[in-house]
Amino acid sequence: MLISKALNVARLIWRPFYRASRPGVRLYNRERIRRTSIDALIAEQAANFAALDLDFQKAQKKVNDLVGEQVDLKSHRSQHYELFVAFSESFEPRRILEIGTADGSFAAFLSMVFPVAKIDTLDLPEADPRFFNATSLEIPTQPNKETNNNYAESISKRKRNLSSSSNIRFVAKNSLFLSRSEGYKYDLIWVDGDHTYPVVACDIANAVRLVADGGFIFCDDVFLSKGQKGKWGSQETAQTLVSYEAAGVLKNNFILKSIRPEKNYSKLVRKHISVSKLLVTGQDVVSFEN
Ligand SMILES: C[S@@+](CC[C@H](N)C(=O)[O-])C[C@H]1O[C@@H](n2cnc3c(N)ncnc32)[C@H](O)[C@@H]1O
Description:
The protein is α/β, with parallel strands linked by helices. The chain contains eight helices and seven strands, in the order H-H-H-H-E-H-E-H-E-E-H-E-H-E-E. The chain has helices at about 1-35, 40-50, 55-65, 80-90, 105-115, 145-160, 200-210, 235-245; strands at about 95-100, 120-125, 170, 185-190, 210-220, 250-255, 270-280. Bound molecules: S-adenosylmethionine. S-adenosylmethionine binds near residues 102, 132, 134 and 174.
């Protein structure tokens, strides 16, 4: 009680200083963005792809041919489009799982890139306070305003996207229900639901269980920097993946999530997409002798 009162007073004192410093910080960041070379980012991304035996330039051209150049910078489109396309050159998944459907744009894109694969995608029921709200560390008690504003539009877009191809199946369910799923194994799993602990750790654990031998798990929005603070989560993804790699279950690689300077000017804003290969096989399962 006393501590929370003291914190509130400290916040009140600090607020004017914080506000006064904002224009200076914005100016400083603008200069850092200006100094971040897009050519260097493209070269870095090409090297990240090459480390995975993937061709970045070829993938970039194919993505632009399929869906055009990116114009809406606020959309969910990022370098995962190039990543999946590059993989499609040498990898033929029969089943793909996407955790976090959002408006279904990416599921529709996957169905173009992998026309013979079965694509299963799930998202929260619309009434869930967490719907369309995956990275905030604050736990909401009701659907967020942004969701409500775009609600009808996003849902009708999702209907159109999901019905664009007969190889997409959608369920409105919390991904935590995957903990009790049995049956299918997936060759490729895209973990892009709730990015905060504990859900993301559960999603990755479920992905490890549901991925087929030799299959891959990709995770979105990975902060590799330990310095990332504030109300956005996702160092939790890296921490979980690192634990799986240390145990010898996964081998992790990372690519940049964006090749735009404004998304890379500091390690605190720079995000990655992880590419993890399952190393263990059916023979490695834990079993106790009788
Ligand atoms: C970043 S969006 C997904 C974007 C999409 N995968 C793409 O590539 O364009 C994250 C989505 O995860 C959903 N989500 C959050 N928590 C979830 C959970 N526990 N189970 C299923 N979906 C969840 C949110 O409702 C939101 O639509």
